[in-house]
């Protein structure tokens, strides 16, 4: 009977029960590079800069319109400094399709408003507008770093980074002490913590040479002007992002997990990038997309809905006399984004049999969406079957996943937009605990298996 059960029943196994000690060490070594990537890519702009530097060091060259290319060439397209597409040219013609990993490098955060600076009761603050899906209370009373790009009147650009250096000041949003929180704690979380209430405390010292009001605001502007050449009007043509001032750290006595800001979706972005840099001459051209704007619906010129992807791949196809439509029709895409991991502290929101679990490998999501699969591309059985066969061959440990109970909530990522291009697509990625929190948690083995999955696709 035991043999019959083993043959006929599906039983998941923890990845640590399936891998060798040698592969565990390889997994942990891989995650050291990933932690470094996290610490250096806390916004999409600096993420692109860091990615381009890594890529160029690995032999990638910037794409120039009209340029010729050959098998094995390594190209990248930097989309306005906020997204990047990289490709390794394969041995088969582009008309046979390409293999794609599509991840995103933006994460939930707090953006400064266009007119952010104000003073109240001799304290200076920045007004913010949160970006992406956050629980607002999680962003109160934690240390914050500030990154910005400012375009001055003369057209020159200034980059601002405050809080990441060991001696840099950091910032915070204040909260009430428990002794005075009786009324606050009667409210719902949504009522107690509002978007307009997420104001960042940035200074308290008044400028001695200024009379009247706004003396602390003057201190702020004096510092910014002396260091960066900025005046207050320059905020109108600037992008500033406040992110948690947390660096990636091992979690757990066994060091099996990583805590950090931005696992969603830099865990998959790094997996796709690393796998591509290790790919030499694949049969099909291998493409890694690191997109922007996923957290707000993939909108905008650097999001996955834009024509930037068509522009780049279409130019490559045109150079080789291939119709872009034929290339897409024969392509395959892993929409490489994270999913929620089952959390036994909150079992009521998940259906345990079908939810991803920590340490069970990369997660395939046949569908995402919400409730009746709304907003999902819903991959076919053939699509899942193709990956099942590939992963078995390449030793990739994987699991099926579903984003919470039916009617509980749901979500989506770029899969639907790739599918709209007539590209066979399925969601795949790293299970995350505390997703969208300022400090998220992933398993090292799941990160490593996501990298192995993407690498297997590139070389298929």
What does this structure look like?
The protein is an alpha/beta fold. It has two domains: 11-102 and 261-458, Aminopeptidase, CATH 3.40.630; 109-244, Aminopeptidase i, Domain 2, CATH 2.30.250. The protein is 27% helix and 24% strand. The chain is built from eleven helices and 22 strands. It has helices at 2-8, 21-40, 44-57, 189-192, 215-228, 263-277, 308-319, 324-329, 381-394, 415-419, 444-458; strands at 61-62, 74-79, 83-88, 98-104, 109-120, 123-131, 144-151, 157-162, 200-203, 238-244, 249-251, 257-260, 285-291, 332-336, 339-340, 362-365, 369-370, 398-400, 410-411, 424-429, 431-433, 440-443. Strands 1-2-3-13-4-14-20-16-18 form a nine-stranded mixed β-sheet, with helices on both faces. A hairpin with a 2-residue loop joins strand 5 (109-120) and strand 6. Helix 6 crosses helix 11. The longest helix is centred in the first third of the chain and has 20 residues, at 21-40. The chain is globular. The mean pLDDT is 95.
Q: Could you give a quick summary of the protein structure above?
A:
The protein is of the alpha/beta class and 460 residues long. The chain contains eleven helices and 22 strands. It folds into two domains: 11-102 and 261-458, Aminopeptidase; 109-244, Aminopeptidase i, Domain 2 (Roll).
Please supply descriptive tags for the structure shown above.
alpha/beta, globular, Aminopeptidase i, Domain 2, single chain, Aminopeptidase, 460 residues, nine-stranded mixed beta sheet, 2 domains
Q: So, CATH architecture of the largest domain?
A: 3-Layer(aba) Sandwich
Mean pLDDT: 95
Kindly state the percentage of residues in helix. Answer: 25-40%
Number of strands: 22
Largest sheet: 9 strands, mixed
Strand share of the residues?
15-25%
General shape: globular
- Oligomerization category of the chains in this entry: single chain
């Amino acid at each position: 009977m035991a043999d019959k059960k083993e043959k006929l029943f599906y039983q998941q196994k923890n990845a640590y029960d399936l891998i060798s000690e040698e592969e565990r060490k390889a997994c942990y070594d891989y995650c050291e590079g990933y932690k470094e990537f996290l610490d250096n890519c806390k916004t999409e702009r600096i993420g692109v800069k860091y990615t381009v530097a890594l890529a160029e060091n690995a032999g990638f060259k910037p794409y120039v319109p009209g340029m010729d290319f050959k098998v094995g060439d390594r190209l990248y397209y930097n989309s306005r400094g906020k997204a990047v597409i990289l490709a390794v040219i394969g041995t088969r013609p582009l008309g046979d399709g390409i293999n794609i990993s599509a991840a995103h490098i933006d994460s939930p955060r707090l953006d400064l408003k266009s007119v952010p600076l104000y003073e109240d009761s001799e304290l200076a603050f920045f007004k913010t507008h949160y970006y992406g899906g956050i629980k607002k209370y999680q962003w109160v009373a934690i240390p914050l770093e500030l990154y910005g790009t400012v375009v001055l009147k003369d057209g020159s650009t200034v980059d601002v980074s405050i809080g990441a250096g060991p001696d840099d000041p950091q910032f915070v949003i204040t909260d009430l002490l428990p002794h005075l929180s009786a009324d606050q704690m009667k409210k719902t979380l949504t009522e107690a913590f509002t978007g307009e209430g997420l104001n960042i405390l940035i200074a308290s010292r008044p400028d001695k040479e200024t009379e009247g009001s706004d003396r602390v605001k003057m201190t702020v502007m004096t510092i910014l002007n002396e260091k960066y050449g900025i005046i207050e009007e320059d905020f109108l043509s600037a992008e500033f992002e406040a992110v948690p001032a947390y660096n990636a750290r091992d979690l757990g006595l066994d060091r099996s997990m990583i805590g950090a800001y931005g696992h969603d979706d830099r865990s998959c972005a790094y997996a796709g990038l690393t796998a591509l840099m290790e790919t030499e001459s694949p049969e099909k051209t291998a493409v890694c997309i690191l997109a922007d704007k996923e957290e707000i619906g993939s909108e905008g010129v650097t999001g996955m809905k834009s024509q930037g992807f068509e522009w780049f791949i279409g130019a490559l196809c045109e150079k080789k006399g291939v119709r872009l439509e034929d290339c897409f029709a024969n392509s395959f895409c892993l929409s490489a984004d994270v999913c929620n991991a089952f959390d036994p502290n909150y079992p009521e929101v998940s259906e345990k049999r079908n939810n991803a679990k920590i340490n069970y490998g990369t997660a395939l999501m046949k569908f995402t969406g919400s409730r009746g699969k709304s907003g999902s591309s819903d991959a076919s059985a053939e699509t899942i079957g193709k990956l099942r066969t590939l992963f078995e061959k390449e030793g990739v440990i994987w699991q099926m996943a579903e984003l919470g109970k039916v009617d509980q909530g749901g979500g989506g990522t770029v899969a639907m937009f790739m599918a709209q291009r007539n590209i066979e697509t399925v969601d795949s990625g790293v299970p995350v605990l505390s997703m969208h929190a300022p400090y998220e948690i992933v398993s090292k083995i799941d990160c490593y298996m996501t990298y192995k999955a993407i690498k297997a696709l590139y070389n298929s």
